[in-house]
Design brief:
Elements (H helix, E strand, L loop, with lengths): L7 H10 L2 H14 L3 H16 L6 H15 L9 H33 L2
Helix pairs in contact: 1-2, 1-3, 2-3
Length: about 120
């Protein structure tokens, strides 16, 4: 990672994408260079987040917790989800959209039949 582009915006992007260690490094550099409420708050969030992350031997349970948190809160998916889970979720979304499209078409046809004289 290039240290020349350490900005608060980049740290927020890393944080939102789940790259907490990278975000922590940027928040730390920003807080050392020009302390501000935003950089200090980000630094504290990343420290808490990384401190609460289970050790690798507990990776499965961490995955379950993250998945339940994400499903309950409606937030974007964390980047550590496996590719299979991401594909599965996207297929589920595609199936729901396909079903809605089919229901919409049937409702439109029924309305057209009712509107005929």
């Amino acid at each position: 990672m290039s240290r020349k582009i350490n900005t608060l915006e980049l740290a927020k992007i890393y944080e939102s994408q789940g790259y907490f260690q990278d975000a922590l490094e940027i928040y730390t550099a920003l807080d050392k260079r020009e302390p501000s409420e935003l950089s200090t708050a980000g630094l504290n969030r990343m420290k808490k987040r990384l401190d609460s992350t289970p050790h690798p031997k507990n990776e499965t349970s961490a995955f379950d917790i993250e998945l339940l948190d994400r499903l309950g809160s409606g937030t974007a998916e964390p980047p550590h989800l496996s590719d299979q889970v991401r594909v599965s979720e996207r297929l589920g979304t595609l199936m729901r959209l396909t079903l809605l499209e089919h229901q919409w078409a049937r409702a439109t046809q029924a309305r057209q039949r009712l509107e005929r004289p």
